[in-house]
Amino acid sequence: MNTLRGSRSPDTAPTAAKRSRPLVVSIVVHAIVVVALVRFLISPAIFTFVFGNQRSPEVPAERIGFLRLPKSTGPAVEGRSGGDNRPVSKTPAPRLVAPSAVPAVVPPAAPETKPAEAEGGSGPLVGTGGPARGIRPTYSDPRVWAAPGDIVAAPKSAKQKLDSAIASIIAPYNDSIAAAAGGRQPGDWTVEKGGGKWGIDPKFIRLGKVSIPTAILALLPINSTGNPTTNDRNKLQNQMHADIFWNAQRGMNETDFKKAVRSIRERKEREKAEAEKKARQAGGPTAQPDKN
Fold first, then answer.
1. Burial environment of residue 119 by CB neighbours within 10 A (0 to 12, 13 to 18, 19 or more)
2. What is the CB-side half-sphere exposure of residue 286 using CA atoms within 13 A?
């Protein structure tokens, strides 16, 4: 047996070592493949980065510059009214000159002549207009004033979109109710007829020329609620009260009935005993008491 064991040990040890090496290599290779697959699933761009030839786009360099604006040499000029909404004429408009002397009499009227059409005017109307060209402050230079662009806003969530949809649906209804009310306050249910108001409003009960405060309504027994839960509870309590009262009355009737039967039985037995006693004293037959 020792010789057999000694002869087998040198052959089996290399065979087990040879079999374990491929298993270890296979496990390592599978682990690398699994790690690479997981890495690819997490970030697919890593596959292109490792095996592809594509390069990421270059980020453009940001350059900051400054623009020197021309400065006006004279003082700042404020805008003024002018223009007559007619094309600008090449010849300036005649200047009005005040007379040197005040006339004592009314000058004769000049013959009516068709006024000649002027070749031009003082330009577009600015403000209240005038004989000279007006000045209107503008922001026309894009270097100073950028034109307004589209309004950019953050995207709305589902809740905000739903609120906007509900508001757009209810807004026309509210406008229609407000237009139909005609400026009437909420809770005002009055009409004007015969020079007085009739109806009810938050403060008074209008009966023509008589106004009764609405606080008096709290003293009237009309404060019944329309809550179905409260009505069901009150109905159940009323049924329970009626059942208790009926059973109590029934118990009283049974007690009275038993008491009456017992009193009648006692009276009958007493009458029978008295009749037997009298019969024994007389020595005759025993008298039977009347059953009635």
1. exposed
2. 8
213 strand-pairing partners: 204
CA neighbours closer than 13 Å in the CB half-sphere of residue 154:
4
Torsion, Cα 263 264 266 269, to 10 degrees, reads 180
Helix, coil or strand: residue 177? helix
| Tokens, residue 56 | 């990421």
Statement: the pTM of the whole predicted model exceeds 0.70: no
| Residue 8 banded pLDDT, cuts 50, 70, 90 | very low
Identify whether the C-beta of residue 196 lies closer than 8 Å to the C-beta of residue 208. Answer: yes
How far is residue 108's CA from residue 65's CA, in Å, rounded to a whole number?
72
Q: Which residues of 186-221 are buried (b: 16+ CB within 10 A; e: fewer)?
A: eebeeeeeeeebeebbeebbbeeeeeeeeeeeeeee
Domain boundaries defined on the chain: 2-49, 188-222
d(CA 102, CA 188): 70
* Selection from 165, 148, 146 nearest residue 156 by Cα: 165
> What are 203's two structure tokens?
């403060």
